[in-house]
User: Fold these one by one.
Assistant:
Number 1:
Amino acid sequence: MSATIAATDLAFQQCLNPDCGSTFEVDRTYFSCPTCGDLIDVVYDWDRVRVPRSMRDFESRWSERANPLNFSGVWRFRELLGFAPEGQIVTIGEGQTLLRAADKVGRYVGVGAGRFHLQYEGMNPSGSFKDNGMTAAFTHARMTGARRVACASTGNTSAALSVYCSATDFGFRAIIFIGSGKIAYGKLAQALDQGALTVQIVGDFDDAMQRVRQVADRLGVYLMNSVNPFRLEGQKTIMYRVLEAMRWEIPDWIVVPGGNLGNSSAFGKAFSELRTLGLIDRVPRLAVINASGARTLHELVGHRGLTWNDGRPDMASVQAYYDELDASGRKASTIASAIEINRPVNLKKCLRALEVCDGVVREVSDQEIMDAKAQVGSGGLGCEPASAASVAGAKRLREEGVIAPSDRVVCILTGHALKDPNATVAYHSGDREMFDHVLGIRGVRRAGFANKPVAVANDLDDIIRAIALYADAGPGLDAG
Ligand code: F0G
């Protein structure tokens, strides 16, 4: 099954704009089309790629886990992202993630027993889904001889980038850009611990993103944000693993939080390619969920009717919306700091994914996000606030009747609970000051599912009385 031709012969890069369509060799480095400035895709010559006849064939690689490429949950599917010679692949064992049936959370969402699943990407080495993309982008960086690698980040991209620099020995040096006060401490801690040069600029993610692109241009630094098309190639594999865990049955819905829209774009590309290859016979529907405080996609698609339009979306209406944001000084603001983004770089590719997957877009409030997050936690898997947007969004779509009770639903939990402990503790602790400081300023008013610590004197009788009083009550104590 392994490719015998140099993998780089099988792939090329192509501008997304059908009126341009410029193509480039796969080992060139562009983060936008040099001819027209649009996004770039990685495209394969599928007639020459030796793809297995059935998705089940990929599973046989589980028995060869001593081979790092088969151990990786990304490269196990390497024929489906065959842009790199095998000897160039940079892997740190990413993608050992879990799809779990979660009936308790499913009841909260409103779907039937056995129909609701959580895909837990927090199990990646850096604690978020980003590692799926980083392994592919670092592989490309290695192919091109890059050394300095940079990103702007709300935290997880920078954590993943830092981990790949520190865990490998190819001379990579991490430079990360973050907005001031815009990053959860768990994520900042990772970047600092791993030795990344951390540039904190006055501004938010959108400002940092603009700057890092300028810096990458000026200094020739390799850009690791999801404008890098190789990132998305790696993130396609999240969907392969979902299908694998579902015994290659296609779910009805994939629900994912939307920030910079890399994941949703990658998922659409994954399904479109699998269908082209005849490896699946239908695609699931895709739901992309914004936080209300960063609702660009929902506004443009849900309210202003923006569509893919065969690769020619109405970008003037997008610009008009951005101009409105600027004129009113509106900045993104949500407790789900990972998706606090108003200018998603992959907007166009996400429109294509929505077209491929008959997708829908919704927004959910910070209150809905924090309540859903508590449900995910008490249902057995923790997650950070942004991830819970998927569950809150599924609940919304169920209430609207868009998702049926019998539908098979997979929500993507994009990041680990420990990424943002402040939000979790503020919700559960019942400490009014902390609640107001961390959540209240984001419009969260209630902690309906709070599990408050019970304060008790250091006295055995008091402790035993407290246990008698509370042990059978379970979570759901009033935050007070
Ligand atoms: N969930 C988490 C936990 C994230 O960190 C991000 C993005 C998203 C969802 C949104 O994914 O961009 O593919 O739509 N975090 C980026 C970062 C922006 O810098 O870590 P997307």
Number 2:
Amino acid sequence: MSAYLEEYQWSQTKPESFWKAQSEKIDWFESPKTILAKDENGIERWFPDGQLNTAWLALDYHCEQGRGDHIALIYDSPVTLTKRKYTYNQLRDQVAKVAGMLAENGVAKGDRVVIYMPMIPEAAMAMLACARLGAIHSVVFGGFAPNELAVRIEDAEPKVVMTASCGIEIAKIIPYKPLIDKAIMDSRWKPEKVFVFQRKEELAELSHERDVDWQEAVDKAKPHACVPVQSTDPLYILYTSGTTGKPKGVVRDNGGHAVAMKYSMKSIYNIEQDDVFWAASDVGWVVGHSYIVYAPLIHGCTTILFEGKPVRTPDPGAFWRVCNEYNVTALFSAPTAFRAIKKEDPDALLLEKYDLSKLKTIFMAGERLDPPTLEWVLEKTSKPVIDHWWQTETGWAIASNPTGIEMMEVKPGSATKPVPGYDVVVLNEVGEEVPANQQGFVALKRPLPPGTLPTVWRNHDRFETGYLSQFDGYYVSGDGGYIDEDGYLFIMGRIDDVINVAGHRLSTGEMEEIVGAHPAVAECAVIGIHDDLKGQLPLGLVVLKDGVKLDELALEGELVGKVRTEIGAVACFKHALVVDRLPKTRSGKILRRIIRQIADGEAYTVPSTIDDPSSLSEIERVLNH
Ligand code: COA
Ligand code: AMP
């Protein structure tokens, strides 16, 4: 039997024995006696009576083991021309002081802390400081506008907010403080304090009574020890796009998460403690939570926090430069990042300047790895390129080539096989498993493994209705796909209103709410259409109210501006076209899938339930125009 099959079968036939063995690889304050039990909502929970602290596992534990001088974190910032290294001792000491600052300002176990920060080491310190106190952090991606931040502040009700004076994008500085002030003004919930880390590129005005200068407060603070928490206590809430305008607060617990993070570093990424792991992502996304901060540190290796982009900081050789300079063992990013490099340096000429001999593997996730990108990276780097599929909700890969257990054959377009712990099935509309190669709803049989979400923050009903109630005993991923005759999983895309733009997860439903609120708009549809660089881009189609006459270009400008103000630049909403009517079923459901197929030039079948077939020619006319 293959090593993968043996491990996979153990995880499926004796999940408690399998996860007990994995749990023994982390340093609990109180080892769990119960491995799996159900909570008050009937949801399976891992290690419920165990006690631990995630910051302890990520920092103090390694210092105690005599590895305090090992490099924990490398900060590389081409946008500020800064490079800095922190040993485990140094990072632990800094995090203990930031935790002290929070505690002295009233933050305690269970309190929420919203973190809105650029990619600087203080962002990771803020997260770990919360973990140290048992406080629950909620990091909000810097590309989101104040309105999105306000929604998250209202939902999480944070005691304090942590931020920096600015973020730095390609050739532009983004002052964060005015965004924070606006979000707090618009939110019904008011945090008591706002800690601002001043960056010399743009200082913030600390004019409000609640504003605190981060560095001054940290300098005065006493280091705080790790507070023991229950395995099932939340470590963080991370909001992600769903089908409506209101984002979902994915809850992550401490114990299951720590065990899953530790397990994944070896089994999926094949990383040892002396290796250097680089997830080229952002701490605002789940990839950043799991693989910039928690997993590499819990594993005791070196992580890289990169404040730059794959291109234009300063050139498309940035990824290769960082891999060379720090002897990166495994690089993880989204396919869109490599498409950006390929666009600007198609022959990968810059690659020749650098030595990538230490780089063992390149991992990709966040969106489908299209075969041309896979082939380009393979050909240019001669490294194994591993596609793996996961979601904010799961926190770690559901399907992957398990490189630390057994390197399997790669099939282009497939994320390979289910990771041990996950029972992946493809179901039809009535919840029956479909035969090999037939597409359907990709679902996970419960119990989900450790690390996956147990609920949606303060809205358990949304967890039940959004994920669990469609098929009894299964979690529905929201993705469609199929499993082939060899058991390889192919994810074909979302079957709901979620799209992926440059590896960023966004809700077209939310964009529709904003576009539809315009006084001239009677109804609208926002769909994700194919884009060679970003994978998908949103496109709005609007029907005007009867009698409304206006300049369509001016309307487009207004709608684009509105989405940018309310969601943020990251939405990349650039086009809104006026149509006479939208194709619908007789029951009034907009046929978004067909609109997308027309926009992408794909063949489509007209459903028998269509209300007015001529509405399709209208869409073709406008899109071809
Ligand atoms: N703070 C503020 N603004 C941000 C931001 C942040 N953290 N991140 C992105 N934005 C802004 C950008 O500046 C841009 O603004 P503009 O419309 O004024 O130009 C807009 O949001 C769109 O950003 P993006 O879609 O990222 O486009 P880009 O041209 O700046 O970069 C890529 C394109 C492909 C290089 C970039 O998206 C990338 O590196 N993607 C990898 C994605 C990734 O890491 N995903 C995480 C999962 S692994
Ligand atoms: P996020 O929650 O931002 O990580 O986005 C999760 C979604 O991204 C998934 O539901 C998929 O639609 C998509 N996704 C992530 N990884 C992959 C992958 N390897 N292949 C295909 N789609 C992916």
